[in-house]
Design a protein that fits this description.
The chain is an alpha+beta fold and about 300 residues long. The chain has a domain of about 80 residues: 2-Layer Sandwich (Arylamine N-acetyltransferase fold), CATH 3.30.2140. It has nine helices and 14 strands. The strands form two sheets. Strands 1, 3, 4, 5, 6, 7, 8, 9 and 10 form a nine-stranded antiparallel β-sheet that branches. A hairpin with a 2-residue loop joins strand 11 and strand 12. The longest helix has 20 residues. It starts with a strand and ends with a helix. It comes from Nocardioides pini. Belongs to the arylamine N-acetyltransferase family. This is Arylamine N-acetyltransferase.
Length: about 300
């Protein structure tokens, strides 16, 4: 399948200019960035710092749609955006609406070596093209608001190690390209994640990642009995060099030189971490939902503790 290309977006019925302004206000940008490398970096940093990656709606049993119009409505309405399929659908729309050249790729995120070459689609990847620099003459950049923990600004699609805010990230040749001795290009590549992260890497290809494939993936990840997205509450955001996360009852903060984590033992501290620290919107969560989610989270944490925290 050819890679998807996102043109000048209309938001499937939304007013483009109004949606852009409301989106930029949500991420704290007072002016409209230009479609340049500086504009791309500013947009990316603002998005990952202000709109957290989260699976709260999935944990509440009412997953949000991945359709672009729905994602944009949640962004501009101050709601939760969600995980990678939601995050990058919205960011891709914004970039295209602002005049960036945006296309999409199939991503497979892996945490265990035995799953590295699995063809399962579990990540929507964005490529921004046409922005060449001395260090990136091809002009292709990997923008990604859906990693949860990851890079604060886009990575150049140039083979090698790339430093952002003191973190080192690696871009390698795609497996087919590597075998043929071809250099890395914008169609396929491998990725080495930051040290100490939950994710180990990503394999990016041009496999099928059309609407039907993304819908099937979303159903599996949000409703499947064995989906990791249904095991515990997860919220993450990237604030410059800080990687801030809540997984279950464990609050974690990583910088290039430190890693601190501790268990949250009270409901108020746990809810406060979600709302005040991770910036997760919760206005639609009922008291009964909070009570049930807190009880489930405590039970999962106890089971994890008793198993030796594997």
């Amino acid at each position: 399948m050819e890679t998807g290309v996102m043109g000048r977006a209309d938001g499937s019925g939304t007013d483009v200019d109004t949606t852009v302004q409301e989106y930029l206000a949500r991420i704290g940008l007072a002016s409209v960035p230009q479609p340049t490398t500086d504009g791309l970096r500013a947009l990316h940093r603002a998005h990952v710092a202000r709109i957290p990656y989260d699976n709260l709606s999935i944990m509440l049993g009412r997953p949000d749609p991945v359709e672009v119009r729905s994602c944009l409505a949640r962004v501009t309405g101050g709601g939760r955006l969600g995980y990678c399929l939601h995050q990058n659908a919205a960011l891709g729309w914004l970039l295209a609406a602002l005049g960036f050249s945006v296309s999409t790729r199939h991503g497979h995120v892996w945490a265990r070596p035995e799953t590295q070459l699995d063809p399962f689609l579990n990540h929507l990847v964005l490529v921004v093209s046409g922005l060449s620099t001395d260090d990136n003459p091809g002009g292709h950049w990997w923008a990604d608001a859906g990693m949860g923990e990851g890079f604060a600004e886009p990575l150049p699609l140039v083979r090698g190690d790339h430093e952002v805010d003191g973190w080192s990230f690696g871009i390698g040749a795609g497996y087919g390209a590597q075998a043929a001795g071809r250099p890395t290009g914008p169609a396929a590549w491998t990725y080495r994640h930051l040290p100490g992260g939950v994710v180990r890497g990503v394999v990016v290809t041009s496999r099928d990642h059309g609407t039907a494939a993304l819908d099937a993936t979303h159903r599996q990840l949000s409703l499947g009995e064995d989906s990791s997205f249904r095991r515990m509450v997860v919220a993450q955001r990237i604030d410059g060099p800080r990687q801030v996360a809540l997984r279950g009852l464990v609050r974690q903060e990583m910088t290039p030189g430190s890693k601190r984590q501790h268990d949250l033992t009270s409901y108020d501290d746990w809810r406060g971490a979600l709302v005040d620290d991770l910036l997760v919107p919760v206005d639609d969560v009922t008291d009964d939902e909070w009570t049930g989610l807190w009880a489930r989270t405590q039970a999962s944490h106890r089971a994890w503790d008793e198993a030796g925290r594997p």
